[in-house]
């Protein structure tokens, strides 16, 4: 029989054991929570895809892996996200038509609102052969090659019934032109002395078409341009002889100068010019020579990747990194602050240089997106681990790609 003293002793031991177990449990660090967004794209980022043969437009929501298709007017549309993030311009160059697609997302700085379901907006543009597209603030500009005019659209008009892009006629002859928006409201635009020939000058106009600054420097065969708001940079040959190239820098004040290509560069022109906003850098690209940093402060052009095998070269969505895709299927990522290579590796199969429609590249800070015409897919490649790939089936022959929306996970109720 247990006496009272023995019973109390057992009870004390039991209490001590329980207390120790409780203390041990309380002092154990909790398992770290894995965020629901880990390893995923930003919730409010969208990918728009156009097909070579079908008039179906595909929108990918990478966060949910949802693909939705919409009826476009024609196949082979050129796609461009607007500076405001909400919209994407859809250019049908051969059909003389521009439409605008609405993601339904709007930014309020600290969060994103879903205003409506994705849809076509009401606005259109009908300039002849719309080709080059530029965007700044709430405005979108299109150069109409077959008539030498510009079309100007403002986001506040996009969902107004019957709205049209405004036509800007500066008396330019038809040509394969390009333009750039300045922060002061003026526009740098190319011109030519003979209709249908490559432009060789740049002038500055206002939004009525009035000429503010005439060209004071003639170059050869301008193509490709970008702006930081105060300077516009155009790829060009130095003269009509096209034996050497460089970039034409045009300031919003009207000043112009030419920065020559590096010595020994040869008879090549940087036909694509990009501006990386976060890094505040200009980049020039031509497939036959590679990607180059254009320093307009030092008036110098230096190589980032010098090679003849590049077929895609893009600045990421935030304007911080440069991505280069080569024919061997290798992707290279460069930090534009330092121009240093931060990652490289094979991501797709080898590409034949003679293919008419090669894979198309765009990227956010988290993923690279590559449209693959041969498989009808868009490959979403994790930029921290190239072996992690999600493939989105979109259409039979995806050949055009654009990003729009926002690099944000913060919704109205988050």
The CA-CA distance between the termini, in Å, is 64 Å
Q: Residue-averaged pLDDT, rounded?
A: 92
Helix content class: under 10%
Give the total of beta strands: 34
What are the segments in which pLDDT stays under 50 over at least 5 consecutive residues? 1-27
The best one-word shape is globular
Beta-strand percentage range: 35-45%
Radius of gyration: 27 Å
| Sheet of most strands | 4 strands, antiparallel
- Structural class category: mainly beta
Strand order of the largest sheet: 3-2-1-34
Helices, by number, come to: 1
Keywords:
single chain; 414 residues; four-stranded antiparallel β-sheet; 45% strand; disordered N terminus
Structural description of this entry:
This protein is mainly β and 414 residues long. The termini are far apart. The chain is globular and about 55 Å long. A hairpin with a 2-residue loop joins strand 10 and strand 11. The protein contains 1 helix and 34 strands.
In short:
With about 425 residues, the chain is mainly beta. About 5% of the residues lie in helices and about 45% in strands.
Topology, element by element:
Elements: H1 4-26, E1 45-51, E2 56-61, E3 66-71, E4 78-81, E5 87-92, E6 97-102, E7 105-107, E8 112-114, E9 119-125, E10 130-136, E11 139-144, E12 149-154, E13 166-168, E14 179-181, E15 187-191, E16 201-205, E17 211-213, E18 225-227, E19 231-237, E20 245-251, E21 256-260, E22 272-276, E23 281-286, E24 290-295, E25 300-306, E26 310-315, E27 321-326, E28 330-335, E29 340-346, E30 360-363, E31 367-372, E32 377-382, E33 389-393, E34 398-405
């Amino acid at each position: 029989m247990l006496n009272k003293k023995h019973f109390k002793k057992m009870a004390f031991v039991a209490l001590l054991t329980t207390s120790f177990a409780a203390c041990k449990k309380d002092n154990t660090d909790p398992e770290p929570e894995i965020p629901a967004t880990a390893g995923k794209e930003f919730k409010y980022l969208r990918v728009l895809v156009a097909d070579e043969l079908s008039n179906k437009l595909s929108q990918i929501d990478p966060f949910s892996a949802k693909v939705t298709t919409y009826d476009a007017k024609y196949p082979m549309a050129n796609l461009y996200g607007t500076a405001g993030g909400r919209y994407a311009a859809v250019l049908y160059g051969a059909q003389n038509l521009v439409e605008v697609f609405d993601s339904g997302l709007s930014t309020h700085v600290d969060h994103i609102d879903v205003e409506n379901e994705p849809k076509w907006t009401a606005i259109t543009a009908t300039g002849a052969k719309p080709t080059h597209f530029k965007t700044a603030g709430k405005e979108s500009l299109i150069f109409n090659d077959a008539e030498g005019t510009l079309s100007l659209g403002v986001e506040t008009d996009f969902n107004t019934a019957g709205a049209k892009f405004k036509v800007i006629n500066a008396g330019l002859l038809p040509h394969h032109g390009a333009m750039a928006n300045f922060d002061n409201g003026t526009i740098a635009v190319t011109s030519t002395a003979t209709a249908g020939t490559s432009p060789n000058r740049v002038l500055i106009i206002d939004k009525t078409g009035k000429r503010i600054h005439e060209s004071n420097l003639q170059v050869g065969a301008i193509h490709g341009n970008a702006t930081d708001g105060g300077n516009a940079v155009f790829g060009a040959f130095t003269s009509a002889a096209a034996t050497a190239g460089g970039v034409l820098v045009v300031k919003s004040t009207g000043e112009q100068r030419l920065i020559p290509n590096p010595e020994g560069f040869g008879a090549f022109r940087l036909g694509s010019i990009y501006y990386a906003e976060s890094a505040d850098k200009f980049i020039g690209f031509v497939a036959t020579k590679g990607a180059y940093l254009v320093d307009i402060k030092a008036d110098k052009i230096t190589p980032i990747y010098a090679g003849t095998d590049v077929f895609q070269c893009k600045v990421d969505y935030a304007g911080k990194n440069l991505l280069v895709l080569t024919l061997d299927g290798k992707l290279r990522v460069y930090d534009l602050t330092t121009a240093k290579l931060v990652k490289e590796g094979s991501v797709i199969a080898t590409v034949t240089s003679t293919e008419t429609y090669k894979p198309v590249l765009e990227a956010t800070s988290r993923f690279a997106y590559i449209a693959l015409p041969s498989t009808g897919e868009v490959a979403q490649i994790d930029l921290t681990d190239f072996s992690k790939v999600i493939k989105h089936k979109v259409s039979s022959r995806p050949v055009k790609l654009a990003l729009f929306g926002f690099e944000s996970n913060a919704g109205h109720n988050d």
